[in-house]
Sequence to fold (558 residues):
Amino acid sequence: MARTDYATILAALPRERTQLLPALRAIHAAESYLSADGLRAVARHLFMPESTVYGIATSYNELRLEQPNGRVVGVCTCLSCRQHGAHELLTAARSLADELGGCTVVEHECLFICDAGPVAEVDGRCITGATPERLRAALASPEPPPHPIRPLRTPRPPEVRRVLRRCGTVDPHSLESARAAGGYQALARAQALGPPAVIRLLDTSRLRGRGGAYFPLDIKLQTARRYAGPRYYVVNAEEGEPGVSKERYLMEYDPHLLIEGMQIAALALEAARIYLYINGQADLAAERMELALAQAQASGLLPIPVEVRRGAGGYVCGEESVILNSIEGHRAEPRLKPPLPVEQGLWGQPTVISNVETLCNVPLIVQHGRLWYRSVGTKDFPGTKVISLGGAVRRPGTYEVPFGMTIRTIVEDLGGGAHEGRQLRAVLCGGPSGGLIPADRLDIPIAGGPLADTHAMLGAGGMVVIDDRLPIIEAVEHLSAYNARESCGKCTPCREGMAHMTRLIGAVRRGTADPLALAQLDALPEVITGASLCGLGQAAPMPYLSLRRSFPDELPRR
Ligand SMILES: Cc1cc2nc3c(=O)[nH]c(=O)nc-3n(C[C@H](O)[C@H](O)[C@H](O)COP(=O)(O)O)c2cc1C
Ligand code: SF4
Ligand code: FES
Fold:
């Protein structure tokens, strides 16, 4: 086998620690894993101890430290795909690998096209509606499969498309197409208004972040501006939560909207630089964003420079302080707060971190005004929310709806409800550390924060429908196991507690639990949620709590 030319691969990267993840990703792309020689070359290039480089590399899920046997075939077995035959596909993929030889089969948590499952992957490229025959055909070709095309459904009431309105109508490869549809008019207006007026507009519009915490954007900007520069803006395009793929959609189909939004927000912050942190697997989104950024740059539409950074896996990598660590070249672990990123973020400087959907709302507010923005939604949560609807529903997909719409309207009117002959049992809201809302409680309006007393949150906007084919306790065991695996390990209650909860739930499901198991399960959430550092651990027991509250029939009587 030809030796990898590490020097040439790394030559383009400045010899600074902030380049650690780009360097690891570059070696990984060349070798399909991180060899000991590759890690050594990175350490030498960045003047870092080899042990430190190794320790950091092990904290990113997507970085393999063992050489795979030939081509890599991935099968998603997360909740949506699981309800579309993922386990049967996984068995078939393993048989195919035995038959053909020279390929490695891995199980994936989510491949982020949850509305077209089951989803598999060959050479890092997704195959939607995957079957054993399609996998065989993909492996027969030496080329990776093409990127899947994901058209949006034609909008129909009660959907209200705002941030999604240009997706599918503008050409994502063309700046002219975006400009003909009104692109960059808001940027010019924001430049004329100046930072204080833009922040006032965001304040009176009551724009709240869409990444899950629903915190007002204007307050972040105002707070960060109290501290001396240089200030940084980070665009959180990690979107690593199973069941959610709306931001990939926005970046793939209307990249200039996000660029315009990040420029306006960063101008309001008077930021020195923007870091656009894109999920490590979202290749199509990254390709289109990079092309659009080059076009905008060439046309003088980037007053603030933008640097694209790619992640390398792990649900926790979407947590804002993990992104800061990742950009600086540290382990994928959250930081203690305070200080908040707005006070001391990247390299100790004030940093505002915003979600993609949040920023896509900004040009619309600048262009159409606060009254227009507040004309849909509720008083506390004006505007719209993009929802990724997946699982056992007839019309899964990406939908944009006003805040205040009920989950039932989303699942039944837009999603078409359960499949013929099946019964809808629950909707998982808020991702793997969210809650399961039973079918008879779906009349809850969507808003930030807790959704009534269900242990569910709207979170990033993922909704996974579960029907009567999947026992709720099995779904809860799957979610708890996921949260346990994704724990970064920094806090003992999250690391050990979630693993223990998963073992206990598994034993209860199989009927092998000892009599104290339920009492232990009831005691663990308090310590895990109360003693964990970041939102992952703080919410990880939610699926169990919602099982306990809303599906008592799935548990043995005490
Ligand atoms: C475990 C975990 C994962 C997260 N993942 C994401 C993510 O993928 N994208 C995102 O925008 N926010 C994510 N967040 C929330 C961010 O920490 C942060 O609140 C958000 O990016 C702020 O942007 P916003 O104010 O525009 O919502 C995550 C939080 C936690 C605790
Ligand atoms: S709560 Fe869990 S994921 Fe978050 S820092 Fe602690 S161990 Fe890591
Ligand atoms: S792609 Fe399978 S659940 Fe997301």
